[in-house]
Write a structure and sequence with these properties.
alpha/beta, 5-stranded mixed beta sheet, Udp-n-acetylmuramoylalanyl-d-glutamate--2,6- Diaminopimelate Ligase, Chain: A, domain 1
Length: 258
Amino acid sequence: MPLTLREVLDLDVVRRGQPEVVAAADRLDVPVRWVHAIELTDVKRLLRGGELVLSTGIALPDSAAGLEAYVAELAGARVCGLAIELGRRYAGALPAALADAAADRGVPLIAFAREVPFVEITEAVHARIIDALLIERAATTLALGRLLTRQAESLERQAHRTLISALIEPGDGHPAGTAEAEARARSMGVPVTGRQLVARAHLARPTFYERLRHIERFLGVSLADPELPREGVAAEAVVTSAERGARFVLRPALPACA
C-alpha cells in the first residue's frame, strides 16, 4: 500500500516538529509519492505530482493574491500537501489567506511549531517509500514466477499427452499418419532425422488409464505396482516408418550411468 500523508505525520521524526494540520484535514489519506523541500513560488515546473512540499516560507509573497497564486501552483502540480516550518518567516501562525486558499484548493496545509531538519524528514519518508516499492516488486516477481512455473508445467503435461498420443495412435498406418506424428514431435521440440523419430518421454501416473494399459503391455510392467516410484516409469519411444506406414515400438529406457 502507498504511504499516506497521515502516516507521514505519524512518523517520529515528523512528530518532533509538532505538526498541526491547518487546512484540508479531510485529505490526509492521499498517497505521498515523494518529499521535496523548495523555497520558490513558481513551483509547478519543478514538481511531478504526489509530493509533500517542505518550506520555511521565506520566499512566499506578502499579499493574499500572491499566496492564493502560490497555492494554485501547488494544486496545479497535484502535490499531496504543503508543510511550513514556523519561526523563519511566520512566527506564531500561518497567514489566514494561505490557509483559506489551501482549504479552497483542497491542498493539505501543515504547520511545524518546532524546527525539524528537513533532511531527516526526507530520509525517513523516502526510506519508507523505497521499502514499500521493493516489497511490491518482490511480490510481483514472485507471483509472476509462480505463474510462469504453472504455465511451463501445463505445457510439459500437454507435450507428454501429445507425444503419447502420437506413439499409440499411428494414424491407421498411413504415411499421412507418420507425417502427422513427425509434425507433432517437431512442434514439441523433438528432433526428427529423416524418417526416424527418437523421443524420450516421462510417463507419469495420470488419469488416462486406457492409454496406460497399452503402454503397460508394451513395457511388460504394471504401473499400479506399489513397488514402482510414484513419479512413474521412464520409457524411450522409437518410432520408425516403413514405406507404407509407421511402426511404433516402446522399450524400457536404460538407467542413467552414475
